[in-house]
Amino acid sequence: MELFLHYSLLPSLFIILVLSFLQRREHHRQRDDTSYLLGNHFGMIIPLDFVSTFSNRWSYGVAFGATANKVMFLFSEGYQPLQVPQWAQAFVLLIGGIEVGLSHFPFFACLSSEFRLVSSILGFSYSLIWFAVTMLYVIQCPHGEFVGRYETIMLYWPSLLCLAFLLGRFLHMFVKSLRVHLGWELQMEENPFLEVHQAEHVKQLLRKCPLQEREKSWFQTKIYEWDPCFQFPSRMIGTTVLAFICLYLFIVIEFCVFVYVRDELDVFERELEGYVASMNQTGTPTPVLLQVKELINVTKGVWLVTILPASLTCVSYLFHILACYRKHMKRLWAGDKHFLPLKFHSPSSSESVVAIARYSGWQIAYILWGKHKGQGSCYCWSGGSQHLSPLYHWALERVLERWTRSPQDGLTLCFSLTISIVLGLMVMQVWIAASFFLQPKMGAADKQKPLALNNRRAFHNFNYFLFFYNVLLGLGACLFRLLISCILGTWLIARIDRTILQSGYEAADMGFNAWIGMLYVDHYHANPVLVSFCHILITGHRERRRQQAIKYWYLNPSAGARISVRSRTRWLLLQTLINNPGLVKLRKSRPGHGSQEFTPILLTCSES
């Protein structure tokens, strides 16, 4: 599958070139620019709009779900296409993330392309290739090393299901676009500027008498109430779907490792029983060995007991984060910022833009690490800590002994370089966002640029390709968050929507910063009132231009060569007199005036 990932870049680049050729560029180059030879072709294509896309939400979510296996490989740092020194692993992981993103780019590009007929054919063909290769791999290697029978099926059936859904989706797109192309069906606007739920939200605000609320059910009162005036963007749906699949894969991988470790512990336990029996025959006490044997028995039982509450907790966090997103966005739309710390009332524009790229990857890393730490907490609460104490002290002694004997200079240098590179890449994201993806300052006295996006197509590609690498950066950010918040416990480590640090230290919680920045970007660019206002302006402008075009279409100077005012006037006079022959006899006679030369012609036309 890794080899196929490399070879899949060839059809992926071909599809990208085809869609880019069809995409028209909005700004034409000058003749002295070499890109002028390309005409208006080869425009920049986007995988999906990370800010304001509400259509095809579940299709984008399933496309993210198809990348789950590769995301887990990146998360475990098992996918490394190049062999480099330890200090350069950050660059290798960045290259691996870009390669994974490029190999799955056609799924998103074909879903968001305006050329539905061509993109549906290309998307269906590419999805079919991935589905056939994955199915062939599962059929040839259905069993694994840890679980044994059907291990590969357990790991790859979510990806196969997502690919099958994409095949059906592209087939539906092809049939629908073909009917439109043949004239059997009208073309519907796929991505309207003003969404229906945004218009309903504005109507609800302008309504003087609120509608009478219906009686709520127990589910709406206690768990969740659906709001017809609010929809989650594609970014949130895709993140949630991918987090669910990654969480399932993480549990399956843990189960595989547990089965392997359990078998090894059974062998070790039998050998330990023989050794303890021989030691007892000599009369020497072995309390440490007995505790290790007891630890083995407790571990095998406690893992099965703790995996259920830890997994259910993370699943509930995913639903709770969606509910908090809706609640926080509604508060920001209403101008209420009291739920935010004072430091986040006016966040940095560049940090907020980078937060859009970081959020999805960091959310997945936080959920997976939160599940791992939550299960560890459940184990400690189940009584495993007392059995781990002797083993912990023994392991700590071995680590300290190895550290004192190993050359510390090289290890410290390697660790410092790795941390510096990772921090440098994070700072570079902020610099790129501030330099290229924000509009200029409105005034010379402004301290920072406004939170208004610029170069949107490049911004969406920047978010997409950094999404996979930010899963790895999110792991480091989560460890840092865990280090800062260890005094408060690790039970709420996956709650990215609420900081677990004390008041005054919220800036150290990078996950919460990403959440706040994402809320501000959605608030500024998907506010129903703002979108409705812009929709009214655009609609009015188009209506005025349409009326002018209908009224003065024959005065359009761009239709041909420039005509003088006198010639145009004489032509209009001739047209008017031909359409109204009775006016010819009523015209005043002006000797020597050039317009009288039309009279014989008009009389002849009227008689005929």
From TrEMBL:
<dbReference type="GO" id="GO:0071939">
    <property type="term" value="P:vitamin A import into cell"/>
</dbReference>
<keyword id="KW-0813">Transport</keyword>
<feature type="transmembrane region" description="Helical">
    <location>
        <begin position="6"/>
        <end position="22"/>
    </location>
</feature>
<feature type="transmembrane region" description="Helical">
    <location>
        <begin position="87"/>
        <end position="109"/>
    </location>
</feature>
<keyword id="KW-0812">Transmembrane</keyword>
<dbReference type="Pfam" id="PF14752">
    <property type="entry name" value="RBP_receptor"/>
</dbReference>
<feature type="transmembrane region" description="Helical">
    <location>
        <begin position="152"/>
        <end position="171"/>
    </location>
</feature>
<feature type="transmembrane region" description="Helical">
    <location>
        <begin position="467"/>
        <end position="494"/>
    </location>
</feature>
<protein>
    <recommendedName>
        <fullName>Stimulated by retinoic acid gene 6 protein-like</fullName>
    </recommendedName>
</protein>
<feature type="transmembrane region" description="Helical">
    <location>
        <begin position="302"/>
        <end position="325"/>
    </location>
</feature>
<keyword id="KW-1003">Cell membrane</keyword>
<dbReference type="GO" id="GO:0034632">
    <property type="term" value="F:retinol transmembrane transporter activity"/>
</dbReference>
<dbReference type="GO" id="GO:0051649">
    <property type="term" value="P:establishment of localization in cell"/>
</dbReference>
<feature type="transmembrane region" description="Helical">
    <location>
        <begin position="58"/>
        <end position="75"/>
    </location>
</feature>
<keyword id="KW-0472">Membrane</keyword>
<keyword id="KW-0675">Receptor</keyword>
<dbReference type="GO" id="GO:0038023">
    <property type="term" value="F:signaling receptor activity"/>
</dbReference>
<feature type="transmembrane region" description="Helical">
    <location>
        <begin position="121"/>
        <end position="140"/>
    </location>
</feature>
<keyword id="KW-1133">Transmembrane helix</keyword>
<dbReference type="InterPro" id="IPR026612">
    <property type="entry name" value="STRA6-like"/>
</dbReference>
<feature type="transmembrane region" description="Helical">
    <location>
        <begin position="410"/>
        <end position="432"/>
    </location>
</feature>
<dbReference type="GO" id="GO:0005886">
    <property type="term" value="C:plasma membrane"/>
</dbReference>
<feature type="transmembrane region" description="Helical">
    <location>
        <begin position="241"/>
        <end position="261"/>
    </location>
</feature>
